[in-house]
Amino acid sequence: xxxxxxxxxxxxxxxxxxxxxxxxxxxxxxxxxxxxxxxxxxxxxxxxxxxxxxxxxxxxxxxxxxxxxxxxxxxxxxxxxxxxxxxxxxxxxxxxxxxxxxxxxxxxxxxxxxxxxxxxxxxxxxxxxxxxxxxxxxxxxxxxxxxxxxxxxxxxxxxxxx
Amino acid sequence: xxxxxxxxxxxxxxxxxxxxxxxxxxxxxxxxxxxxxxxxxxxxxxxxxxxxxxxxxxxxxxxxxxxxxxxxxxxxxxxxxxxxxxxxxxxxxxxxxxxxxxxxxxxxxxxxxxxxxxxxxxxxxxxxxxxxxxxxxxxxxxxxxxxxxxxxxxxxxxxxxxxxxxxxxxxxxxxxxxxxxxxxxxxxxxxxxxxxxxxxxxxxxxxxxxxxxxxxxxxxxxxxxxxxxxxxxxxxxxxxxxxxxxxxxxxxxxxxxxxxxxxxxxxxxxxxxxxxxxxxxxxxxxxxxxxxxxxxxxxxxxxxxxxxxxxxxxxxxxxxxxxxxxxxxxxxxxxxxxxxxxxxxxxxxxxxxxxxxxxxxxxxxxxxxxxxxxxxxxxxxxxxxxxxxxxxxxxxxxxxxxxxxxxxxxxxxxxxxxxxxxxxxxxxxxxxxxxxxxxxxxxxxxxxxxxxxxxxxxxxxxxxxxxxxxxxxxxxxxxxxxxxxxxxxxxxxx
Lengths: 162, 494
What we know:
By secondary structure, chain A is of the alpha/beta class. Chain A has helices at residues 8-21, 67-79, 100-104; strands at 4-6, 27-32, 45-51, 63-65, 83-92, 111-117, 124-131, 136-140, 142-144. Helices cover 30% and strands 18% of the residues of chain B.
């Protein structure tokens, strides 16, 4: 499986979003370079966009992105020549592993980035994708940067590496 | 039969041979999607649950409208229509043990407003943009905001006008009334020509004329325990402009359960109250009033009257608080109850504390859902409430006082035919209408307890006596009916 690449400044933005919304879950779009080999999953994330967590209830435990927001984001992103490659969301005070609930609501093809966040730090971040046939999540290697850069994982160093 | 284009969402295209869309012949939206699933069987399990219905987190749009706002899957399609399948994205961390969090169906959402300001917008909102506390960023927050006004009457009218003028993006209005001539003394949203029109129709016209950039969403009918969470759930702030207790408790409870702020206002005669109840940051309405007053105790504005400008002032306080919450500026009226007395022209402020035993918003809350509010308040849904409190006495307290060495004078304000049916021993009968002419029969030095059948007329009489300077007057809660039920079952009730 090819690793998902997210440039370090974007990882920082994602972490900042998780800290901003703590103790509630944050969520957002991963905007990707379209893969010429569609329908393969795009692996290079080029931008992120914060989304509103519209879950009507305990947002510390759940997030929902409204379909209308996804539609609008999709239009904007695609008109700029990119695609929505997936989503990120935080697990306040919980591990950076997909929950059963995540799995039940996951879609194939998209990449899901999950962060663990506490009141003071973002201790872990991971990437997952749904194995559409098996209906379960599989972990994907998450690398900082772009293919042009060396595949260092230093930028994911402690305490923010998993 | 018609040719309809069904757009396949990106994540599912690999199950449709990489196609972004399919063209099908089908009479309805549901059948159009089903045809596509027939063509690409692998799509089926991603779109439909085992019972054959669309999965709860699959949204379907006909052109630009969510079909849940139309006729759902039965919505007919015509030639050239575009049906889009849109995944709802949801997830979350593992629920805490014993605290399951059910998935809530997504609300129907109209398209969001554009994210830029045109020249006219810049001119329209220039006085806001000049304020560093608002600016372009704040004005955008207002445009993205959704505010629900419960009640389009005395309080809702000024609130709606100012929120629309301020550029709040979406205003939902809940009301079921038609405009009456007697409304115009205070409900400044409406004109004489509007009399007889449904309030929501007239309000929508007026607010959109004021600011075409505002989406006005009429929610006709009553808010009920069945629909409140759905209706309130899609709004950022709820403004409570209700005139009755069942709806007020319903709004409060739904806001607490949804974690939304409720901007409260109430008016009676010359006095008004306002506060912001946000259980995440302070008390809720139930912390202040755990239970409603007895149904007949407090006359509504229809009975007690109200100074026309009073709701204007309180409604504008509510609009101000709403805008502050949306902008995130200033000190919200959370944990504070603003009291306004128009006759004295005095503003006072009471500190409100979160009730550590509040059934709804305390850590030990026992109420986890909505209840039957008309029953809770002891009234039919149409009964009006109000905001003033009268000195009162319960049947049990009255029994004890009557047994004491200094019993109060009992004043019965019912009609003689009712007196014939039943009355309390040693009571004095002065029918409510004769009271102003027979005040000399009441000894002002004595304590007086006023009663009627269930507490309505006696509350008016109590108010009248207090207004006339009788200091020691109390209303028997629930009237002789409650006394018979709780103290002396030998008394007949009628």
